[in-house]
Structure formats: C-alpha cells, structure tokens
Amino acid sequence: MKTRITALAISLILAAGPSWGKCSEAIYTELVDGYRFCVSSVLSPQGKFTYGPENLLNPTGQTTWCEGVPGDGIGEYILMEWGNPYALKSMVVENGYVKSEKAFLDNNRVKRARIETSCGVVMEVQLKDQRGTQRISFPYVVKPTWIKFTILDVYRGRKYKDTCVSSIWPDFEETRWGSH
C-alpha cells in the first residue's frame, strides 16, 4: 500500500490517553488533521525492541505492536481515532510480527477480531494466517470518528504467546480515490 506512507507524517508522540490506555499520535497530512492509536496493553521492551502503539504507524514492517497481558491477549484492543467523521469503505491490517517468517511464526497472530465503530457498526472478522496486508470491508460506507479492533481468537505462535499486529489503518484514501 503506497498511499499510506505518503499520508502519514513521520513525527510521532507517545502519550498516555485518559481512557483508552497507551496512545501514539501522528498527523495525517492529506485527509485527516489529527490521528491517534491507543492500545489496551503493551508488551514490555525486550532488549532494544519495543512494542508500543507507535509501531503501528511504522510503514517498514520491521516493528510491531504486541499486547502485554499474560496469555494470548484475548480481549486486548487497538483503537484508532481522529477528530471528525470521515467516510470509510474499509480498513487494512498487517497481521502478526511480519519482519521475518520466523518472527511471524514464533508469535501469535489475530485469528478473529471484533470491529466496532463510533457510528454503531459492530462486526466480527476472521483474518488469514499469512504475512502481508489484509483488507477488512465494512458492510456499507461508514462515517466514524473511531474504530476499535478487539482480539477474539488467535493463531498460536511456535514460541511466544504474545499476539502482535504490525500495522492497521482505516483506508481513507480508498474512499476518496476508489479502489487501488
């Protein structure tokens, strides 16, 4: 997805959100003025590697968000929010820790998730157990100010129980410019 890279500003600010957990902010330059990722938990740093919400904004695939609770992370979530309602047809997920085949298979990946929006859409989706991006389409064009992605089930990792998502974003540009 080339368009995501051009729309995100590179500057990131790690902040504590008052009601949504740990948050990271970015400026959306073309379509949305303010944009924020909040997560329910974060895996503690492992050496030089960190797993916070700021990693969801990194387009390189070399970083990831991993939940930080004991077990598989069922019920943990990612919340994406922005200031004003904006029309969306879909969102995109890069499931698991995709920096390498080994990292992908060693860690848990999301199998099923609940998607909730500020405009009342609630749906369950099943993700494929594969590296790369996956598009999640809404049943109709929605105009939310936030989307919540909650882990319901996982594909088990060979080595770790940490469930990871490398990137996730609402595809504002698909709605604006049509399918890619």
Automatic annotation (TrEMBL):
Superkingdom as given in the UniProt entry: Bacteria
Keywords carried by this UniProt record: Signal
Short name of any one Pfam family annotated for the protein: NADase_transloc
Keyword Transit peptide: no
Signal peptide span: 1-21
InterPro entries: NADase_transloc
Location of the NAD glycohydrolase translocation F5/8 type C domain: 39-168
Keyword Nuclease: no
Protein name: NAD glycohydrolase translocation F5/8 type C domain-containing protein
Originating organism: Dethiosulfovibrio salsuginis
